[in-house]
Amino acid sequence: MNMERSASEDLIGAFEGSVLEIEVVARKQMFKSDGSKSDYWAVVVADWYYRTRPTMEFHAEGYQHKGPIHVGRTELTLRSYAWTNADFDNYKRMREEENMELLGSVDEGVKAAIEALGDELKKYLREAGEKLPEDIKKEEEEKRIAEKKAKEKPPGALEPFVAVFSGFKEIFTSIAPGIGGRYKPEKTEWELKREAGAAAGLANNVMWQTYKNFKKSRGIVSW
Prior knowledge:
By secondary structure, the chain is α+β, with helices and mostly antiparallel strands. It has helices at 10-13, 85-104, 108-127, 133-151, 159-175, 189-217; strands at 18-31, 37-59, 64-83. It folds into two domains: 3-104 and 191-216, no CATH class; 106-153, no CATH class.
């Protein structure tokens, strides 16, 4: 649930009914004009906030008991973004941390129980092959330390000769970048903005179509 709704008055009425929030994130890989993959994804985040109360219905005709009918209110929020893979991973980590904070903020006793359960849950997820945010950070830190140690490696006896040939290689590569390896120029700021704009445009169009079709499916006036 959204942290902003943790103090909502709807939570009091939830004892007699139900309050539920569902969030769905849909994304699509963008492609450039030459057919290669773009760094950006068109992303649409759909958030449903349900607040319902069950009522018992009894039909005299046929003496049929239909069971409870949930009547209430639904709020639909649609948001569109142009994200990279790094942005998407950061959003998922943020949501995971928010969920743990929301559960732990209920009570100190509940918080302690959740923390204990959290350790068991994390252990279960690791055994299932799931990578947790702290595991990813640890791997990145270990990789950074390994790269730093590799750079600080003491030079060997052939280091002067290797350095000379490396210098010739750098000069030759700078003169003819397409030879001696695949040359991949860095994208300019204008290219990145263009790719992000294309992804945002597609996300806006998908968001509008989703909203329009949702209204049609519920019999709401649409155009």
